[in-house]
Amino acid sequence: MINRIIANQTVRNSLTLTHRNLLKTLHNPDNVSDVVVQPIIFTLLFGYLFGGVIAGSVHAYLPMLVSGILVQSILNAASGSGQQLREDINHGIFDRFKTLPIAPIAPLAGQLFGDSLRLLLSGAMALLTAALMGWRPTVNCGAVMLALLLAVFIGWSTSWIFALVGLLVKNAELISSLSMIIILILTFLSNAFIPVKTLPPFLQTIVHINPVTTTITAIRAILNTGHWNGTATMVLISGGLIIMLFMPLTVVVYQQRD
Predict the structure, then answer these.
(1) What is the mean pLDDT of each successive set of 10 residues along the chain, which is 258 residues long?
(2) Domain locations in the chain as residue ranges
(3) Which of 70, 226, 227, 258 has its CA 20 to 30 A from that of 165?
(4) Does the pTM exceed 0.85?
């Protein structure tokens, strides 16, 4: 009975802080840019700049671009976890949480639960922008939603890595800069925006071992065929392994934080 009461309190506290983190995102221009503006800008930019060169037209390029921009947008949004966490710590907000009669894990849980909704919004903005540019999926809405949820799951699992970095690195601006550099490298050295066969052999090798390439390949296959495949299963398992590894590490570091 006591354990049930504690569990219910933890869930209520976590949901309250999830709401707080979503409001914080909406009232912070930088966070709104990461979640809403960037997917729109990158979709428009890459579509109209590279569409004619790579595929002959913007419309022909969109089926390739959508999966790449979807993953990039969600990874960009996921990287904000570490920065927001560190900002709250540096501003003393988490110290204030310690004095409140709430579950000790609730501030961290609220941050990560809120991230899942931020990621879903970011991915939806990328798909909506592509649709306004003329992209029309050849599969049903269920397959599109499945691809979006897979991308969100991978983004959410990655957010645990960024959350751990946010607990370990003291400078929020440094976290933001490093996260942006890493994500840009991983996405541009993948099959997100160009055919891999056009790259030099040594770059093709790097692209093929890049986990972002595997994720994009799985999502692209779902959007093209409407069917779940072995690559998607591998991506799902990989995301689960990331969570199994980094969730306990993040919780331990969080609980041992001064």
Answers:
(1) 60 77 70 80 90 87 92 88 80 76 76 83 92 90 93 92 86 81 89 88 91 94 92 94 90 77
(2) 2-256
(3) 70
(4) yes
